[in-house]
């Protein structure tokens, strides 16, 4: 069970770590310009995980490190990661933290559609059902009576950020088997550096040093650790399923907005929570169930009229089963074997 649950736990923890970004960024944006904020978040991720890498890189095999064939996905990942947090910070600045948390769930839909259409990743009926329930839940949240959803410039920027991250998730999925440390460090340093240069070019004012430190610490937790765990989860779950577990993000974000910013939770929050839980159950079931096609070969001999005959029977069947580790056993009864060979007997 541990082998199958570990990536699920990684995916959920990644979502929880990322959820703290929205309300805390809302507080810091009062003192840090939006593009610089995006820069320091990613730089914090790159520096923090880079320090972790110092104690780990000797243990890595050379085959784990990024190679030439990984460059297109790596470049795409970096460019998209440079624009996505800028869009998100603008969305938070011109909208509300709750609004940004809720609309951020569009990333799940974007990731799944891109994985299915462009990268030909298999999306089962169970996962489509989960995505539909997640979308319904997000819609319920989005039309809070308190007016947390309003199609403004802030909302548009959050949707742009979610779309960028949806495509970026799929780029990262294609290199997720490589060094997680290397991927996060490259994401952080280059995406954060690009945003930093952009902030300087558009004339943003550098904030006080203490706010830079706070932003980078937040970046290490909300981006660095979140991305690290997300990539580890993708290795086993794929882009679509890992993204689906991000469904918990708006609830954690909304709860923190309630605690830190005084934003209210209404009955619709709890109604949406129930639907989201059902959707998550579908994702868990889809993660645990595998479909296998088994092919079996049986040889037998018999003697007829003094002549010995040897026959080989090949048959296959498909079935679903729940897998909690990599071991799977099954057997065939004597009756099944007799049925398979009966037509050869004279």
Name the quaternary structure: single chain
The strands making up the biggest β-sheet line up spatially as: 1-2
Total of domains: 2
Low-confidence segments: 144-149, 291-296, 316-334
Category by helix and strand content: mainly alpha
The average pLDDT is 77
Q: Give, in order, the helices and strands.
A: HHHHHHHHHHHHEEH
By DSSP (H or I, 4+ residues per run), the number of helices equals 13
Helix content: 55-70%
Strand percent estimate: 5-15%
Annotation, overall tally of beta strands: 2
Shape: globular
How many strands, what sense, and barrel or not for the largest sheet? 2 strands, antiparallel
Cα Rg: 25 Å
* N- to C-terminal distance: 48 Å
């Amino acid at each position: 069970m541990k082998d199958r649950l570990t990536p699920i736990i990684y995916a959920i923890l990644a979502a929880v770590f990322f959820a703290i970004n929205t309300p805390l960024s809302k507080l810091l944006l009062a003192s840090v310009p939006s593009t610089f904020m995006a820069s320091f978040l990613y730089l914090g991720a790159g520096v923090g995980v880079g320090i972790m890498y110092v104690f780990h890189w000797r243990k890595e095999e050379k085959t784990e490190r990024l190679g030439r064939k990984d460059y297109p996905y790596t470049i795409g990942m970096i460019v998209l990661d440079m624009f996505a947090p800028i869009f998100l910070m603008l969305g938070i600045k011109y909208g509300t933290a709750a609004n940004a948390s809720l609309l951020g769930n569009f990333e799940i839909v974007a990731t799944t559609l891109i994985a299915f259409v462009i990268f030909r990743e298999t999306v089962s009926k169970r996962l489509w059902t989960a995505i539909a329930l997640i979308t319904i839940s997000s819609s319920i949240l989005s039309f809070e009576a308190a007016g947390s959803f309003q199609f403004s410039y802030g909302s548009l920027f959050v949707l742009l950020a979610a779309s960028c991250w949806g495509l970026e998730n799929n780029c990262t999925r294609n290199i997720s088997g490589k060094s997680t440390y290397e991927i996060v460090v490259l994401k952080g340093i280059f995406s954060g550096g690009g945003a930093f240069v952009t902030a300087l070019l558009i004339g943003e004012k550098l904030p006080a040093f203490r706010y830079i430190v706070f932003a980078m610490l937040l970046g290490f937790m909300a981006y660095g650790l979140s991305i690290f765990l997300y990539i580890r989860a993708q290795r086993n779950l794929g882009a679509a399923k890992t993204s689906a577990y991000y469904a918990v993000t708006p609830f954690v974000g909304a709860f923190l907005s309630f605690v830190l910013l005084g934003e209210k939770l209404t009955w619709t929050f709890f109604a949406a929570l129930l639907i989201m839980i059902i959707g998550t159950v579908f994702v868990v079931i889809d993660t645990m169930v595998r479909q296998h096609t088994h092919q079996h070969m049986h040889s037998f001999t018999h003697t007829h009229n003094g002549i010995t005959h040897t026959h080989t029977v090949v048959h296959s069947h498909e079935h679903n089963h729940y897998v909690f580790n990599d071991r799977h056993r099954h057997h065939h009864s004597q009756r099944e074997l007799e049925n398979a060979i009966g037509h050869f007997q004279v």
